[in-house]
Amino acid sequence: MKSVASWSAEEVSRWLAEEGMPEYSESGVRLSGRELLQLTEADFQGPPLMLVSSDSGRRLLEKVETLKIEHHIEAHKNGHANGHAVAMGDGHDRGAGGEAKRNGAINGFHKEREMVRISIPEPKRSSFPMEWGKTGLSFLYAVCCFVSTTVIISIVHERVPPKEESPPLPDKFFDIFNRVEWAFSICEINGMLLVGLWLLQWTLLKYRSIVGRRFFFIVGTLYLYRCVTMYVTTLPVPGMHFKCSPKLFGDWEAQMRRVMKMIAGGGLSITGSHTMCGDYLYSGHTVMLTLTYLFIKEYSPKRFWWYHCICWTLSAVGIFCILLAHDHYTVDVVVAYYITTRLFWWYHTLANQQVLKETSQNNPFSRVWWYRLFQYFEENVQGVVPRNYQLPFSLQAVAWSRVRYSRIDSE
Amino acid sequence: MASPELLVERDSADTRLDMRVEEGHGELPNGAPCAGHGAAGEDGGKRSHRKCIRKPRDYIKISVPDGRSSQLPLEWWKTGIAFVYAVFNLVLTTVMITVVHERVPDKEENPPLPDKFFDYIDRVKWAFSVTEINGMVLVGIWFVQWLFLRYKAIVGRRYFFLMGTLYLYRCITMYITTLPVPGMHMTCAPKLYGDSQAKVHRILQLISGGGLSITGSHLMCGDFLYSGHTVMLTLTYLFIKEYSPRSFWWYHLMCWLLSAVGVVCILVAHEHYSVDVVVAYFITSRLFWWYHTMANVQTLRGCPNNYLTNTWWNPVFNFFERNVQTQVPCVFCWPITWPPACFKNSCKKYSMVQSIREE
């Protein structure tokens, strides 16, 4: 095959037609082989090539480069074929475009000596990157939601009608079951046990940053919804046994102190921090019990059925005890359970399916208000997070024997 | 040397092969004589039947698949079941309202609960009529739109199922805890302690009036959590938007305005608490999106990590949507003529065997 530089206009034209670019050959523009090799992008900025080409000659230029490579291989077949082959059949993992190829090949061209640059492929990015930054953000979001919930409880407390004026509303469960005094402590102990178990399990997970991020986000959103429902309508106390702390009309300092006390006590009655009334719709205790159970079940091995059973029992008994203690209306518990389970399943389905991570008309889930936040958190997580376990401070993490390889062994 | 008929058949086989390839099915073409047919099977039960012509000549009947219509079978009987389900739930709701009415505390005993919206906006008397008129207009528009849809059966089924489920949830939340009346202006009908016949009479009155106050049928109190009016307004708007062309933005805007104004007027009229409206909107929109995601995103079906199937109504969903294999396209046609006359699809009927030789 004679070199491209000595091609005539007809041969160029034939080559163009073969390569699927008849618009150039039929346009009447005559190019010799040498002119073809010397084409640059600037030539496509003015007539006549500008009128013929639809993509500023990008395709043609790429094909010319390929042509050059092929001819270079032909010309230097004996000595450098291997080197070029490696440079061309390149290590770049990018599937698109000939740019990577071209770069590798062109680099191979430029070194006249026997050195050939071999591009080492980039290490494959993990499908489950840690991204502790995002987890931190998610934690901040949850903390914000908790604090605003506490503030709202404090505000709503001022508006709760006194029990004499607004007696407890009729409730089917309360009609059937009488109040048991110590039941609420059981509920709170169960809650603390479940949260403790979940924390332990979480420290043992390998992908704890991803899972932690999800937990904080879901908990934060649930408490945010709770703020809204608590605030708009205030339900009266569910039972005459309630002792609500006195109202502090406009005394901001005392209210702040009350808010701090509640946060410090974790919002539990057992710690004595929760003496405020009005946070009935919907029940935060149910949210925590349900959510920790769902997370425990989701991120533990399937064969630990006894473990799941225990946690389920803790959760169910806890919820039942809330009602038995007449501490929440039945509708509070039902709505809380519904919203928690739906949000959990919704989020995890979205996270596990790649197709749902794109906003499109076919993806009704993308219309939810927190979708952009979700995309930000989960965009780099590819696929289902596997249930792998790892000690938090493992000895293997310490690299005590590490050999560094340099890219090129130069003698 | 191929005879003309064989040539024709082979071409048809090729075309059929092309059609198969386009649809992404990996079935083998069946140009073979009697013995080879039936291999690819009656999956789904909706594939065309392979009949073998027993003519001793070289005629082979090649069944042309129906294409899109086999992916969206109408199945009116399922729509009928969904309708019965919805009616049952509506009746159940009515019964529940009557039962709950007996338990509503008196206004004097349990004054209206503090509500943020009521603090800011005072009651406007005629606002509730606006809500109900908007509701009736929206339902009317939706009905007309539904008549013109090509795949009415599928869409109707979805509408009835969602409405029925939402009213079922409403039954539960109404029953377990009874909220007091939201305003002193509400006049509740007197309680009928144990008088079953009068109760039944009341139920029938409520059903016949469609549950609307404007028809004078709704004199009962206690059905506050959550708001049925919000459910109807929101659900109808969501359906209108989903099953109409995307370019009709003015139409969507108009319906959205009707819906939003209706919902706001419920609160302005002090007929429901704000939490009733908020919870109703939340549950309606989530259920609608959940159902449609399950129905439209085909990759979710049979996927093990699909938590959307954890709901209690998943078997019912599978029953309704099992044979619907693609997203319902937005195709309209005249309501009274049969589908072949749809102006979107010009369905010309091809005769199955073109005989060239007259013998």
Task: Tell me what you see in this structure.
The complex is a heterodimer of chains A (411) and B (359). Chain A is an all-alpha fold and 411 residues long. Helices cover 54% and strands 0% of the residues of chain A. Chain A contains 16 helices and no strands. Chain A has helices spanning 9-18, 22-25, 33-37, 49-52, 58-75, 77-88, 99-110, 132-157, 172-176, 183-204, 208-232, 252-264, 284-298, 305-324, 330-352, 371-378. In chain A, helix 5 (58-75) packs antiparallel against helix 6 (77-88), helix 11 packs antiparallel against helix 13 (284-298) and helix 13 (284-298) runs parallel beside helix 15. The longest helix of chain A has 26 residues, at 132-157. Mean pLDDT of chain A is 79; it is low at 80-108 and 397-401. With 359 residues, chain B is mainly alpha-helical. Chain B is built from ten helices and no strands. Chain B has helices at 4-23, 76-101, 116-120, 127-148, 152-176, 196-208, 228-242, 249-268, 274-296, 314-321. Chain B is elongated. The two termini of chain B are 20 Å apart. Mean pLDDT of chain B is 78; it is low at 1-51 and 345-352. The chains are: A mainly alpha (411), B mainly alpha (359). The interface between A and B is large, with 48 and 47 residues.
What is the percent of helical residues of chain A? Answer: 40-55%
Instruction: From the alpha carbons, calculate the radius of gyration of chain A and give it in angstroms.
Output: 34 Å
Tally of helical segments of chain B:
10
Count the beta strands of chain B: 0
Number of strands of chain A: 0
Biggest pleated sheet of chain A? none
Largest sheet of chain B: none
Q: Which terms would index this structure?
A:
heterodimer; A: mainly alpha; 16 helices; 54% helix; 0% strand; elongated; B: 359 residues; mainly alpha; 10 helices; disordered N terminus
